[in-house]
Amino acid sequence: MAKNLPEIFEEMRQALLGRRPDHKWGASAGEAASAAVGGLKGLGGDTLTKTAEHFNEISPYIEQAGFEVIEIEVGLGLSPKVVAHLVLNELLEPEEQQALLDEIQTQNKTLTYTVVNSLFKTTEARRKLNFKRFHFTHIELELSILPTVVLKFRRNDYDGDDVSDVLSANEGEADSLLPET
Fold first, then answer.
1. Same domain for 85 and 135?
2. Structural domain tally of the chain?
3. In which band, very low, low, confident or very high, does the pLDDT at 128 lie, cut at 50, 70 and 90?
4. Based on the number of CB atoms within 10 Å of its own CB, is 59 exposed (0-12), middle (13-18) or buried (19 or more)?
5. How far apart are CA 158 and CA 152, in angstroms?
6. Other beta carbons less than 10 A from residue 158's beta carbon
7. What is the residue range of 12's domain?
8. Residue 152, Cα to own-chain centre: how many angstroms?
9. Contact predicate 141/149, CB 8 Å
10. In the predicted model, is pLDDT for residue 172 greater than 50?
């Protein structure tokens, strides 16, 4: 019987973190690779559909956690991924965060718990990050073999939508640094 995506994620997470106190990181890396390869082999052709279904299951909890999904990207490849762009609408109090995590845990939704907990931790980490000339814009939540949360920052003096706008705007500056021929 093929494993579903949350089961594969959980196996990889356990392999990376170690299942026993005396577990070695080298062994964890090997187990994680085996879990990933084994999981990919077990996934059928409907992986993309299942990935979207998992995101749809997680979405209400993302909203309960105080986030709004403003955009979704889908990456196609060996391992499909869904990247949700999130903005924080409401910062929950620590007690509210814990209550939501407890609710998710009682429903035995491991992937959902991991994602929501990661969002809460990322929000806390974001408070500690200060970059000169950059401001925080949004969070990207990547659901793939190894779910990832990315904090996005943008230059304060940049108001375009595309990175290529910045590159073309700075093209003249770069040319002025080159020696004349």
1. yes
2. 2
3. confident
4. middle
5. 14
6. 14
7. 5-42
8. 12
9. yes
10. no
